[in-house]
Design goal:
With about 400 residues, the protein is α+β, with helices and mostly antiparallel strands. It is about 50% helix and about 15% strand.
């Protein structure tokens, strides 16, 4: 990542820490009111007006989220304007804003909804409005999936093999659209490779700090020998390993396909939420991130090969002429398991993002996968040989 990009990320962090900056309103959920909603949703419907907004509750983490129910006047009802919305906006927590700002998460998500979502069918919520500014100030108006019959999967919910299969289908659908796409070098070039992502240097440094902390507390955390060896290899060779992510067939990826960012539709399909850390790499990274992070040890051992083959089959059915072989995909699946471990560990050391018991369960799942898949061995192989297509 360039010095200019690093300085830009640091500048965004400084703005995020400030309690107030000049920014277009609304950029918090409390600023979203009837008059503004009317101006956004009824601009093509003369006379329509939101007459009441009911806050139906929500949650707060890296961003602030609320469900709203709108009451329209007769003109709005006649035009069948949206009555149930999901608002996603700036976190009130300076600490959480720093993460969003450093990695340009809000900017990424707004670009996703304005430039990518229209090509993907219904694997993500429909967006009615999207705007992002500096310092992680932003606002999104999305469909309220609950009102449409979908079920967001929460941390702690049982993650079934049927939902895993549906999500593998969804990932293949996404990846097939952008498999070796020329758009990745033109209008979607902002979806950078791993080492070119905004804030990459800061993220890589934080991963190193996290690994060192876990190694220093190895007895308490009960890290197995394969996990400890993997962490040492990563801290010695992480930049070279990250560069290999840019080799092989590139596609647009969600970037954070953990269980809490997924939902199930009434007819058994699956979708993805929180498109904040999109970038480009091999699609097998996303499949590994999902399976290793979401499935219990027993389910993973019983179904991981089936799910990988399903992904490859769906790519071929979608018109991808050069999907990886099963052997290539399985090697990548093992290699990219390190990223699931890193991401879960980093979140464990960043209190307030997810329930501690869910993070601990995730830690146990990903650590078991590192042992079962001998991830330290393939990481060592990639250190010596790089990525081999």
């Amino acid at each position: 990542m360039s010095i200019a990009s690093t300085l830009g990320a640091l500048g965004q962090v400084s703005l995020a820490l400030s309690p107030k900056i000049p920014a277009a309103k609304p950029h918090t959920v409390t600023q979203v009111g009837a008059e503004w909603l009317t101006s956004v949703l009824a601009q093509d419907t003369p006379g329509a007006r939101v007459v009441d907004v009911e806050d139906r509750g929500g949650t707060s983490g890296t961003t602030d989220r609320r469900r709203l129910q709108l009451t329209w006047n007769d003109e709005g009802v006649e035009a069948d304007l949206p009555t149930n919305l999901f608002v996603k906006a700036t976190s009130p927590s300076p600490k959480n804003r720093t993460m969003v700002a450093a990695l340009w998460m809000a900017i990424n998500e707004v670009k996703f909804y304005t430039q990518v979502r229209p090509t993907l069918g219904d694997i993500a919520p429909r967006c009615y409005y999207a705007r992002a500014g500096h310092g992680a100030r932003f606002v999104l108006l999305l469909d309220d999936l609950v009102e449409l019959g979908a079920r967001p999967v929460l941390h702690g919910d049982e993650f079934t093999i049927d939902h895993a299969r549906a999500l593998v289908d969804t990932l293949a659908q996404l990846h097939a659209v952008y498999w070796r796409s020329p758009r990745l070098e033109t209008d979607l070039s902002w979806a950078a490779p791993m080492t070119g992502r905004p804030g990459f240097s800061l993220l890589a440094r934080q991963f190193r700090v996290t690994r060192r902390k876990f190694l220093a507390q190895a007895d308490e955390r009960e890290l197995g020998p394969r996990v400890r060896r993997m962490l040492r290899l990563l801290n010695e060779h992480d930049l070279d390993l990250y560069r290999t992510w840019s080799e092989g067939p590139q596609t647009f990826v969600h970037g954070d396909s953990h269980v809490g960012n997924t939902y199930a539709t009434a007819d058994g399909r699956a979708g993805l939420l929180d498109w904040q850390v999109v970038f480009r790499t091999r699609g097998t990274r996303e499949v590994s991130y999902l399976i290793v992070g979401a499935l219990t040890r027993e389910l993973r051992q019983a179904h991981e090969k089936e799910l990988i083959q399903r992904y490859l089959d769906r790519l071929a059915e979608a018109g991808v002429s050069d999907p990886p072989t099963f052997e290539q995909a399985f090697d990548d699946y093992r290699f990219f398991a390190h990223d699931s471990w890193d991401s879960n560990a980093l979140t464990m050391l960043w209190p307030g993002l997810h329930p501690p018991e869910s993070l601990q369960a995730g830690h146990e799942r990903v650590s078991a996968a590192i042992d079962d898949l001998a991830v330290d061995e393939i990481v060592e192989q990639r250190v010596k040989d790089g990525y081999r297509a």
